[in-house]
Amino acid sequence: EVQLVESGGGLVQPGRSLRLSCTASGFTFGVYAMSWVRQAPGKGLEWVGFIRGKAYDGTTEYAASVKGRFTISRDDSKSIAYLQMNSLRTEDTAVYYCSRYVGYLGDWGQGTLVTVSS
Amino acid sequence: DIVMTQTPLSSPVTLGQPASISCRSSQSLVHSDGDTYLSWLQQRPGQPPRLLIYKISNRFSGVPDRFSGSGAGTDFTLKITRVEAEDVGVYYCMQATQFPWTFGQGTKVEIK
Fold first, then answer.
1. What is the 3-state secondary structure (H, E, C) of chain A?
2. Which residues, including other chains, have CB under 8 Å from residue B1's CB and lie 6 or more apart?
3. Element (DSSP H or E) covering residue B95
4. What are the Cα distances from residue A102, in Å, to A16, A35, A52, B15, B63?
5. Residue B106 CB: number of other CB atoms within 10 A?
6. Which of chain B's residues have a Cβ under 8 Å away from the Cβ of A61?
7. pLDDT at A95
8. Which residues 25-64 in chain A show a CB within 8 A of chain B?
9. How far off is chain A from B54, nearest CA to CA, in Å?
10. Do the chains contact at A44 and B102, CB–CB below 8 Å?
């Protein structure tokens, strides 16, 4: 059974950094691309970014709203995808979900809440 | 960026009756590989998103057959043949044909 568990969320001040983790199980992690999607309180879904599998050298894509501030990486030996978030803004407050990409986002984690506030 | 526009934004339906949601993209979602990366997701209250349909019309594992997707190019539709209580939630279309991937605004399905 595929499982994705996000962790690392919490309360952080504007301008600070936070790193989220997405721990995967139930599949050969390194083969698959992974994506992060977020949802601000009471709002819709927003795609954050994407990291390809090792066959494509783990290259990344980002939404314009986070490009240059957020970085997605992966540790295939630990089956973990990371979302490093720097220079956080109040508008980054959201639940962050990771998802496995298999031509579509079929498997999702439960999400982790990030609150950016002073 | 490709803009995804859903209609309606709210859909009150009677149990057992059909429901339909439209999604229109600002440009064709046909990828250079010939596939169309249009998905439909359901989000029940307090839950993460759940994939229902991928590549326009393919039901994901475990999705009841009362859900169906159709369309081509820039116009797509999600249909529920007979709405059940567990179908209450927000439905999103999403394109993964071109970066940045984009979602529709969401359509709230509720019971009358």
1. CCEEEEECCEEECCCCCEEEEEEEECCCHHHCEEEEEEECCCCCEEEEEEECCHHHCCCEEECCCCECCEEEEEECCCCEEEEEECCCCHHHCEEEEEEEECCCEEEECCCEEEEECC
2. A64, B100, B102
3. strand B89-95
4. 33, 11, 11, 34, 17
5. 20
6. 99-100
7. 98
8. 35, 37, 44-47, 50, 61-64
9. 6
10. no
Ranges of residues in chain B with a pLDDT under 50 are none
Q: Tens digit of pLDDT for each residue in A26-49?
A: 999 999 999 999 999 999 999 999
Contacts of B35 in chain A (CB under 8 A): 103
| Per-residue pLDDT, B10 | 96
Residue A106, pLDDT score: 95
Residues β-bridged to residue B89: B109
Give the per-residue pLDDT at B35: 97
